[in-house]
Amino acid sequence: MGIIGGLGSWVFRLAINLIYEAFFFLPMQILNSLGLSTIIWVPFLLTPIIGGLIVGYLTSKVSKETKGHGVPEVLESVALNNGKMNLRIPFIKIIASATTIGSGGSAGREGPIAQIGAGFASLIGQKLNLSSKELRTLVVSGVAAGIAATFNAPIGGSLFALEVLMGEGGTTGLLIPIIVAAVVGVVVGQLLLGTDPAFIGFPALEYHEPYLIPLFVILGLVCGAGSAFWIKFFYKLEDIFDNIFEKFKIPGILQPAFGGVFVGLTLVITYFFVGEQWETVTIMGRSYLPMDAVFQGSLLQGSVLLVLLTLILLFVLKALNTVFTIGTGGSGGVFAPTLFLGVMLGAIFGIIVDDIIIITNVPIPLLALLGMAAFFAGTGRAPLTAVIMTAEMTKDYFLTIPLMIVVSISWIVSILLEKDNIYTLKLIRRGVVLKEPTADILETITVIEAMTPRDKLVVVDTKTRLETVMELVRTTRHEGFPVVEQDMFIGVITLSDVQKAMHSSPKDWNVFDVLITKKRPLICIHKEATLMHAVHIMESKDISRLPVVEKFPSQKNEFPKLIGWITHHDITRVYISEKALSTLQASEEHIFSYQNGPSENKSS
Q: Domain range for residue 254?
């Protein structure tokens, strides 16, 4: 997964650049060569709309799971589906998100690469028939590898996977495979993308002066409040879009293009005001240049009022365009836009303190960097990731001191103002409730993992005589048997059914005759259901055994294929086994064993 995560990051970035070249750079070159430089702004206006139409088709007609951030869908997969995802997701996600970002959308590539890595991991895990636990581990490792390769930050990628995807349910048992995947992902990414950090041009950032500590505290408060407001604003505006689309019955294929109109207008206005330097202040998700310009100080030069207004305008336009891109149905992440907003908010705070409150020698690039980490910590609720990943990206681990101050405060303030992070809130709004880390073990195990498989079952067919069934009861001590015809599940015959039939009728009956007189509906369970579902069915129907089928029939006259049989004994056995495994690590400290066993010679 480390190799695939690194390759996926490279392929995804290559796809973004190819689409950008085809949609922006090539049309601009053609217009210049034809002497039509006066309308060179046309690609800025039309490309986001065209990209929106392509993405609208993919997310509404081909794969709805590829719409939006990417991370919430992985969260849902890990928490509720044991890591299982639709096998086409990683392929469609690459195309949809690359089109969104490459055509000028204000979205990040980190969320998509998380879903792409998770999607390939799920595909491989399902093909290898891994257990639920192994599949979840593989999926989380795929996310870690993709994020680590994207930011060239192996520890940060690992922590992102643990904090954001696993939350409080993350365990040290997951740490080693996740770290291995992240490290390998970074190595592959460096071979293909180079060793440059995600952001370039970090200056030597000094923070040793004691007077800066109160500024760090205040910045943490500001970023915490700002990140909570950003979460609320994002989904409030998304609700407005949904209401508009529903009221005017705008089809899904056109919805991202609606957002593309606003993005295109923003790009055109930016080009008219800035000219050839438009990329320095662009709101495109493809480019990190505006953040680099703040860190290098080039965007902080000039009149204080002009610089301040520029930063505020960038903050507002980035926030609006991100919601217009993702909230209308585009495919892209909120990770990078959140970093962008944090950088601008930190720089705005620094300028106000330095030039308006007049505290001299305030390191504005440092405050911008701290704002970036604090804003993400408050938005994504991943404080450790924010601290370590920022330190890795700057190659300055002494920054952890101010980072820990601003990140911790921002995280606490954001939680007080908005209890859900930007990822989980999307799922909650869809009615998806993630299980708590302490969820019942029965909810994490599927029926197919606990059942007795078909080849180990004693089955009867419809022509089996009742005397034969009685003999099977005596020899196997089972009181019920599935009835099958060519692996199709016909029904269940029990000892009670046989006794009633033989007592009430002198006829020479077989199993088919008993099933005809019972006239009861078939009760069975799908192989992907959880053991908790099985328990509920067995309790409500007062039965001790439950047939497991491959899939439910599409027509009333069809019978499902029997693949197994789940009993109370199966459920109890698996529950005890899983419970023992989950507590084994804590129990090992109480185990003591001798190096050698007892000698055969008693005298020795």
A: 2-429
What integer pLDDT is reported at residue 208 of this predicted model?
Answer: 65
- Identity of the amino acid at 547: P
Indicate the residue among 402, 429, 456 that finishes a domain. Answer: 429
In a domain, 592, yes or no: no
d(CA 543, CA 538): 5
Count of structural domains, the chain: 2
Q: Same structural domain for residues 256 and 297?
A: yes
What burial letters (b/e) apply to 459-494, b meaning 16+ CB within 10 Å?
A: bbebebebeebeebbeeeeeebbbbbeeeebbbbbb
Residue 599 lies in a domain: no
Lowest mean pLDDT among 200-214, 376-390, 432-446: 432-446
Q: In the numeric block, which tokens belong to residue 127?
A: 């093909």
Residue 434 DSSP code: P
| Domain co-membership, 491 together with 355 | no
Give the integer Cα–Cα distance in Å for 598 and 584: 26
250-278 pLDDT, tens digit per residue, is 999 999 999 999 999 999 999 999 988 89
- For every residue of 256-283, DSSP letters joined together read HHHHHHHHHHHHHHHHHHHGGGGGGG--
- pLDDT band at residue 220, thresholds of 50, 70 and 90? very high
pLDDT of residue 229: 97
- Helix or strand (DSSP H, E) at 545: strand 545-549
Percent of the chain with pLDDT over 70: 89
- The residue type of 311 is L
Selection from 538, 497, 534, 535 nearest residue 518 by Cα? 497
Same domain, 414 and 445: no
Residue 360 pLDDT level (bands cut at 50, 70, 90): low
Q: Which string of b and e fits 264-285 if b means at least 16 CB within 10 Å?
A: bebbbebbeeeeeebeebbbbb
One domain for residues 403 and 472 = no
Same domain, 372 and 513: no
- Give residue 437's pLDDT band: very low, low, confident or very high (50, 70, 90): very low
With respect to residue 31, please indicate whether it lies within any of the assigned structural domains. yes
pLDDT at 586: 47
Instruction: Kindly report, residue by residue over 503-536, the tens digit of the pLDDT.
Output: 766 566 777 777 766 666 778 888 888 888 888 8
Output the domain CATH number for residue 527: 3.10.580.10
Residues 6+ apart with CB under 8 A from 367: 215, 219, 346, 347, 349, 350, 353
Higher pLDDT, 481 or 101: 101
390/445 same-domain check:
no
Q: How many CB atoms lie under 10 A from the CB of residue 71?
A: 28
Q: In this structure, is residue 21 part of a structural domain?
A: yes
Q: Is the pLDDT of residue 134 over 80?
A: yes
Q: How far is CA 438 from CA 160, 348, 441, in A?
A: 21, 42, 8
Q: Is 414 found in the same domain as 323?
A: yes
Q: What is the CATH number of the domain that holds 167?
A: 1.10.3080.10
The verdict on 21 and 122 lying in the same domain is yes
Which helix (H) or strand (E) is 453 found in, with range? strand 452-453
The four Cα atoms 105, 223, 167, 213 give a dihedral, to 10 degrees, of 140
